[in-house]
Amino acid sequence: MRTIDRDLHPEVTSSFTSLSTDQQLALLWFIYKEVGKSITPAAPGASTASPAVAEGLFKQVSEMSHEEQLQVQRDLIEHKNSLISREYGALSDTTKLLFWYLLAQGMDRTEIIPMPEDYKLEAQATQCMNQLQQLEYSEQMTALRSLVSVMGVDPSSSPHDPVTGL
Length: 166
Hints:
Blueprint lengths: L9 H8 L3 H13 L17 H12 L3 H13 L4 H7 L3 H16 L14 H11 L3 H13 L17
Helix pairs in contact: 1-7, 2-4, 2-6, 2-7, 3-6, 6-8
């Protein structure tokens, strides 16, 4: 399992990683909703992103039931050893960020399990959002990339799992 570089933005990193899995997912959604306002876009056209790869992984997730989609997202955050977690773990950090951006767009279109309309962030998640909003553009991108980079399972450093066969 990889670790977040806590030296970059320790307050954001600490706030985010202390949240429950579902609060982390909710916060990623709220960050997406802030795109174009106080949080900068995920740079879908960034030169280090592999749009076709991110879109391929997104397509796999979008073809699942809403319950399975939610479980995949939880598995990524919790580093569960699954095929999707391993595929995600092999992506570049910028492509991982693009993948989460595609998931959020899919949620907007209800292709991906949407957030309940009346959902409210808990105070700790709101604090993390505020910390992120206070960062400059490049710092926001670095912090977001750092947060999503450690999700999933790195297939090159994970031992064989006899339970999953991976």
